[in-house]
Predict the 3D structure of the following.
Amino acid sequence: MVIDDQRFLWSPTPRTEDSVDNLICDVVIGRLMGASVFPDSLVPRDESATSSIQQGAPPPEGSAQPGGEPASEPVEESPKEGAWKEDYDDVIEPSEDERVQAAPETSPKEKPKKKHWAGIIAVIVIVVLLLLWTLLSPKVMSTQGATYVDSPKYANLGNFTGARNIWTGDVNWGVSVSGHNNTTEGTPIDFKVLVTKISERPGNFFFRGIGISITNCTLWDLNGTYIAKLSSLQDLGFGKMAIINATLPVGVHDLYISVKFTEYEVMRLGFIPLESVLVEKVFLSSIDVGP
């Protein structure tokens, strides 16, 4: 077969069995020698190359040697990795890491990390608040039993006991009232109202105990007439005391006292207000006021 140089079309020509064998041999020899798979007769020719040969130009390298055998092309050795890299450094663009290592001053500068000042300040504020919350906690009242409730000194005019069962635990309170039950007209009387903790059972280990602050204390006549309110407060260590100063007219007076206080649960860290407790009526002994 003959290849048309212009259109690379195959033109059928009769072939004999010998020509087919020769073609196969040429292909095998070309593969072994590194030459083209197809013989020269099957490779399309460049017209310029053909014309140069016809005009007597020197044959190109790799032309057939005398005897009809095609000249073998020289096999190029693959360059070593180091030599290849040195030869082609100008062609291949270096990677980002290589660029940074080669010229760190020209590498893109990283943006400075923002310091978490806001987070640090928030943590400091929280710690300070927790410390203040703990330091400003009310004092946990100690349990005193019925010592002051039954005391002739602190409860000579009257007393009261009551229990509170809440989610932080159970607590029993006592109210003791003391003062003079006999006086003369125009002489003021000091009614001393003492609130003590009889017993307490905290709900868990995190709760240290309950403290209180007296918010109101008033003196009433049995007919519902308001007489006086608290004039001062005292912390005796074993309880909180409210003092009511009142002047009564001549006669025998049946009185009662109402007292209101707020409970605070003191915890291992900080405290929380629990509830307000109102003891509506603590009845007193009769007060005799002479002329």
Observations:
- Residues 117-135 form the longest helix (19 residues).
- The radius of gyration is 57 Å.
- Residues 1-13, 35-44, 46-57, 62-66 have pLDDT under 50 and may be disordered.
